[in-house]
Amino acid sequence: MDNRPDTRLLPNFEKLFIEDRIGHGRHLFTLLRLFRGMYGGLFVSLLFFILKHSPIWLIPIITGDMINVVSNPDNININRIWIDLAIISVVIAQNVPTQLLHTSYLSRSSRQVEAGLRGTLVRKLQHLSISYHSELRSGKLQSKVLRDVEAIETLAKQMMYVFIPALLNVIVAFSVTAVNNPLVALFFVLIIPVGALMIFGFRKNIQRKNREFRKQIEEISGQITETVEMIPLTRAHGLDKVEIEKTDSTLMDLRGKGYRLDVAEALFGSSGWVMFTLFQMGALAFCCWLAAQGKMTVGDIVMYQGFFGTLLGSVNQLINVYPQFAKGFESMQSVSEILQSTDVEEYQGTIPVMHVQGGFSFERMHFKYRDTDQHVLSDFNLDIRPGECVAFVGESGAGKSTVLNMLIGYYKPTRGRLLVDGVPMDQIDLKSYRKHLAVVPQNTVLFHGSIRDNITYGLTDVSEEKLLEVIRMTQLQEVVASLPDGLDTKIGEHGGKLSGGQRQRIAIARALIRDPSVVLLDEATSALDNISEYQVQQAMRLLVKGRTTFIVAHRLSTIRDADRIVVMNKGRIVESGTFAELMELQGAFYKLQQMQMEYAGIS
């Protein structure tokens, strides 16, 4: 049987988590709704569970009957014993196939929920704003997608493997006992409220400690992710001990919170065991007293004790597994922090963009980040013609990269607007618009795959000829030839097996192969040596020809051929013109150029 989830049926849980308002006492209701559309499979699983679990209920009855038969020496019916043995043997043997079928149907449903939740989280992360991602550490997101979803899937299984069996055990044990001896059944009745009171008494303390432990797990997950990424820097500066001490400090906090959680769970479990074992011994003494009065047979005592043991085992199991329930509920709360977030991309336009000519207009644009009152862009006005190459220069913090982020649609102006080919950006469909862009960021973004995979990322119809042409244009032929598997060589996480210049050229090749209408280059040649920079600039001339191009550059020598250079300072345009015009003006751009020449040792 194929238990892999059918990806066509993966449910979208985002709306469900929002509607059910996780965190308002609706965890069980939401957990049930997670299986919507799979109730048939769960029902079949429940039927097979009842069959496979039936020996637990029949063994006390058969045992009691056998003892009653042999305890009456004057009227022993040996055939009845053999019949009992045959019946219980068949019931026990059927446990194997019914257990497999029960697990198969349950696992199919629970794994479907697990895959659906992770898929929904990934889709939600793709729609959340860049601000949201910049404020939340990637390690925390990984913890939610991996650890918390696994805890929810475990919770669902615990409900089927523990809660429902315990409930059925209580119903069967109480029903059989109540029919035979209502007085003994009173002991069964008392167990339920005592168990409920114990859970209620420990619930808040266990929930609080689970929440503290979960948040600390997210913290250490984020810190370890950063630590691994910083190993080259840490090693280069001899800061190994500092980084280890920082991690050790967080691990000590985690150890403390984990220890307190373990102690709370141990106290909870042991208290339940003591209480219910005393109940069992009390019930045994009562049954023995009834037998001494001639009101109960020895076989009945064994039967009632068997049911009482089953009942106490179920209740104790619930007591012991409740911390796992609390962990699962806390994980549902953790996942809801993402799924209930309304911090999505601000642009929600619907006009599809079939073609981009490349004309842009910034109209009295102001922008500030949400956590500050200082504007990054102030009264920013700029018109760009289709096919124009515009370079932005200025000191760090002048707002250059923010302009590029505005063009991509990462941020929406606080005031003013941005027009694309005369259409306000808040009206267009960003997904279709971005297909016409090619972005080469300052920090090269590569993933663990081959050179081919990284260059053709997201494209499915790239011919080998076109790929090789792009390789040639970005001067990557020698790099590819020197690698053991050529274009199919794995480059390691973040392209760690390549030099900085090689990684940057792969990023430029990725832009070239898309044949975009608009090109955005944020310090695209910053990691290249002089020879590589010259080679890539030759390729870039082919890329930008006939395309609207935006360049952010600190090395002013790289933008001599730009149609227009925009000099920015504190979010405003202070100068604009060609390289020659700005040098002749001898203003802000001229001063920047002189500073760079002096720094390079050129007089």
UniProtKB/TrEMBL annotation:
Domain of life: Bacteria
Compartments where located: Cell membrane
MF GO annotations: ATP binding
Matches recorded under SMART domains: AAA
One Pfam family recorded for the sequence: ABC_tran
Protein name as annotated: ABC transporter ATP-binding protein
Spans traversing the lipid bilayer: 34-51, 159-177, 183-202, 266-292
Topology in membrane: Multi-pass membrane protein
